[in-house]
Amino acid sequence: MGPGFKYHVITISAIFFALTIGLVLGSLYVSPRLANRQTLAIQALQGKLNAEFTSQREKLQTYQKIMADESSSLLKNKLTGLNIAIIQIGDYPEALAKVRDTLLLSGAKLVSVTSIDHSLDRPDDALNSTLAELHTDTPVIPADKAALIKSMCTAITRGETGNVSLMAALDHAGLISIDQDSSYKSAVRAVVIVCGSRSEITTRPINIDEPLIAALQKMKLTIIACEPEKITSSDLIAYQSSSLDFIPISNVDTDIGRYNLINALHDNHSGNPLKSMTDGVAAESVNSDKN
Questions:
Q1: Alpha-carbon dihedral 33, 36, 41, 42, rounded to 10 degrees
Q2: Rounded CA gap, 148 and 144, in Å?
């Protein structure tokens, strides 16, 4: 796919900015007649750039309409029978709802949906002190952060086997929230992490997210981290600065982002990957033209 809409906007803005500076500086040294010719030339160029801008915007709107019209058929039953867990660690619950609906449309089996409470976003010493107190009253809860994260990841990805549920105890303690349809009795083949921060300054990626993803890596399954289009701070960028192994999906609340999410999961759990996003758009565009 060629340069995106934002690329064209930035390019056009840069051109006009440069022309304006040139016109101002040039007017200090040239005659009024030459300055007038330069103004007319700039106006002509502005007309051409406006036409290009309009054309690119129309193309983008066409692609968006195709994806909106065809997204359901493109996603439906593509992941039938695939056991998946969702972990919400970001600040955008609406993105979680979009991911849940998209996975259900794809036919995936949502084994569990777990939301990590931000009370875990504390330095290790402070958190370990709280966990030690909880452990005294509820022994199933680990007494330190490292053991807690490992135990949570095991319960989410491989299922709980004991008579006492760690996840239920953590929910009761207010450290996590569990979706009402969740069941930690089955193993999963993929985990989808929903992230994205509302604050420009946050310690959550270091205190919670990165240790969690690192623990999930040891489970030898597909890990996808995704975030919505409009966010204050991107957690994906923070994760990519580390050595974490995961598949990043941005703009997951858009039709293209939803398609990329399902495509990534399908590609990792099928010998017959879906078509690339650009191929799918091109094919739908041709069919649309024929109709």
A1: 150
A2: 6
Q: Work out the burial of residue 175: count CB atoms within 10 Å of its CB; fewer than 13 is exposed, 13-18 middle, 19 or more buried.
A: buried
Return d(Cα 193, Cα 114) in angstroms, integer: 10
| Residue 208, token pair as written in the block | 């919670």
CA angle 104, 81, 102 (to 5 degrees): 20
144 CB neighbour count, 10 Å cutoff: 14
Q: Long-range contact list for 241-247, CB < 8 A, 24+ apart?
A: 242/210, 244/210, 244/213, 244/214, 244/217, 245/217, 246/193, 246/213, 246/217, 247/222, 247/223
d(CA 249, CA 261): 6
Query: What are the distances in angstroms from CA 215 to CA 157, 159, 228?
Result: 11, 15, 24
Instruction: Give the separation between CA 140 and CA 182, rounded to whole angstroms.
Output: 19
**Which candidate, 208, 146, 201, places its Cα nearest to that of 176?**
208
pLDDT in tens, 134-162: 999 999 999 999 999 999 999 999 999 88
150 three-state secondary structure: helix
CA pair distance 14, 19, nearest whole angstrom: 9
Q: What pLDDT sits at residue 86?
A: 98
